[in-house]
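Standup notes, structure subgroup. Blocker cleared on the zinc ion input:
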Amino acid sequence: MSFQNIIGQDTAIKALKGIIAERQVIGSYIFMGPDGVGKRTTAIALAKAINCIREVQEGACDCASCKKIDSGNHPDVFVILPEGKRGAIKIGKIRDVIYEASLKPYEGKKRVFIINDAEAMTEEAQNALLKVLEEPPDNHILILTSCNLAGVLPTALSRCKVLKFYNLSRDEIQPFLKSRGAEDKEAVLFSHMAMGSLGRAMAFKEKNMMAKRDRLVNNFFFRKSALLHEDLLTEDMGDDKEEGLNLLLCWYRDMLVSKFTQEDKELFNIDRSVEISSYAQRFSKEKLERDISAIVNTIGYIKRNVNPKIALFDMAVELKRS
Ligand SMILES: [Zn+2]
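Run returned:
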């Protein structure tokens, strides 16, 4: 993956190319922006560009260095991800980084440390990293990625050059989906559901997320039995509760939008726009706004590892309240 393959993000890519051309890739960087818009891919492309034996920046390169980075086997490129049930990056992992950062590049030009989801670092881990962030040793680069600035200590943030990444447009997402085998109709629908994220668009294509959405909303809204919907909701969310909540959030958001406009292009769930606007009649704008807040809050609780069963039950009760 080179810069050329990255969709959108023209400002960040232009800035990085300039920095590389002037041989000024030094210090620490933080790539800020929503999930699934290319931050990690760009970090890898940067690691490749600065270590490429042929100094290729555009297009594919099959030099030994680029190949090793692509396969995750380069001894000078480190990719750190959150681990464990809580998805954290703990102090032990950061101590490894600090140790590795004290060594010279083994075979590359620069050692590159990519710390994904920097907000997942514990406070202790972030504090330990400050000194290296401030002034990485010669020939060492740190790249942090984050979708949540609030989770990164100001002291850590202030030591990094910030590059911003943005949501992608549907026009940017659709050709990509088609290049990965999506049919025209699917590409349009998934680009609407993607909320600007390529990662999310691909998840719709590959993980059968439309079926999950249908199960979720059909059982919660349209089932005519006296069964406790609140419990069903927890089951239908499946393993990835946050994703399930995002699907529900999109549905509610569309109901609210349909109160203001009848244009499909403004909706996420364009395949069910008729049901959405007729169902939305039952609710006031105020009620929908309250419900959206309840879902957003619940996503926050799930992120913070509150017992999902309780959080979802409470939310379902709130949503059913008239
Ligand atoms: Zn190369």
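Discussed briefly. The mean pLDDT is 89.
Next: hand off to the docking folks.
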